[in-house]
Amino acid sequence: MNKNNKQKFITTMAVLLVFVAGHYIGVFRPVENILVKILNPIFGGFNSAGLGIKNTYNDSVNKADLLKNLEEMKIQSNALVEENAKLKTVQEENELLRGYLSFFTKTNYKYVMSNVISRGGISDTLKTTETITIDRGSRNGVMVGQAVVNNKGIIVGKVSEVKDDIAKVFLVNSNQCKLAATMFNNDKTVGIAEGELGLTIRMSFIPQTQKLNKNDLVVTSGLEPLIPRGLAIGKVTEVQGNNNDLWQSAVIEPLVNPDDLTIVSVLLK
Amino acid sequence: MLLAIVALQKGLVTSLPYFMSGTNLILISIIFILGVYGFWTALYWTIGTGMLLDIYSFVFFGNYLISLLLILFLAHFLFGFLFTNKSLYSFLTIVLLGYVFFEIFYTFFYYLEVFFKKGNFDIIFDRDFYTIKAFGLLSSLVFSVIVFNSLNFLTNKLKPVFLFRS
Q: Is B13 in Cβ contact with A50 (below 8 Å)?
């Protein structure tokens, strides 16, 4: 590197340092916010296009009819789970629980709708199937710990980090997402539901005295300050633990496929 | 162009099927710009893309920037001192090394931040995670072959030059 180039390089690095320092001081925040505002819709568009490609790929590798049947069964199953939960709520004459399952129309929770603009990162240490980035941030009232739901009111994740105009959400199948949960069984079992391997959810440390059944609905318990009670998380697919064990655990299947998420809502409460 | 490549990387690539979601377009663009247009253009491109990625990143501001700059310096060194020509094989080798070292640098700085913030060390020993990374490397190499051949068609800068005695 000759003298001129050396000087040019040092100047470039100095300018770069000023920019980085400017970011931390907050001088460039307005410029960054404008950039994010411009880029968010573009990112969202590309993300939808990517999902379209992904879905086309999935369609081509699976038999079309089988996939269609599966989708129909999933929708039917979700509808039945919701219906089942509604019936139980009526049985117990609990007005609150009935409201939770159709909270958007029957409760006063405030929410903000947002687009999914990205998943994970280039070199995210977490799998891309476990996090999403949404185009709403602290300026829209989004806070860390708030619940993120889909159009049916099923919880899909929890806000983990927030910037001015974007926020990162850990999906329910991520082991970083821990939710205070309760089951719709006779014992009203409570516990912590956390993601496992990016696929399922596990509820552990349940006393052996409590009776768990397959297909029991698991909902949020309301013990977390920013997450209301009664948001459907999933249903029990497997109960693990021998009679000799002190605790038992339940494997819960999420009701939402993370690949289907393009628009979500953050419950502001 | 710069905004487009970042939008493609953050918006499109991350939502593609698993075998393509690990493709690192930014890294490929830096290496090819270095090879075709030289160090200074690549440096400004790296700064631009790095800062944009950092704006969207939830890791500390500068992680992408530093990691990408280190990769640029590494690629510049390899082009200058190790590879005698700008052939497809030299590009592929640099993309391969760049991909691996970018992951190492990024993860190192990420854990450095976790260490100083006293956060949880979430080291992943998960087959799926590394499978995605391996496919990401593979798809990056395939994409590099496509870019190399396209550039070879459009420009003479990658074609070998032979000197003949008159």
A: yes
pLDDT tens for each residue of B75-117: 999 888 887 677 888 889 999 999 999 988 988 888 888 888 7
Q: What is the pTM of this model?
A: 0.71
pLDDT in tens, A80-114: 887 777 676 666 545 434 544 555 665 667 888 88
Signed CA dihedral, A132, B61, A145, A111: sign only: negative
- CB pairs under 8 A, 24+ apart, for A193-197? A193/A218, A193/A233, A193/A234, A193/A252, A195/A130, A195/A170, A195/A171, A196/A251, A197/A173, A197/B126, A197/B128
Tell me which chain B residue has its CA closest to the CA of residue A6.
Answer: B40
Out of B7, B102, B128, name the one closest to residue A43 (CB): B7
Name chain B contacts of A120, Cβ cutoff 8 Å. 14, 21
Tell me the chain A residues in contact with residue B48 when contact means C-beta distances shorter than 8 Å.
none
The predicted complex's ipTM stands at: 0.73
Alpha-carbon gap: A186 to the closest alpha carbon of chain B (Å) = 36
Tokens standing for residue B155? 């420009």
pLDDT in tens, B6-47: 888 888 887 777 778 888 899 999 999 988 888 899 999 999
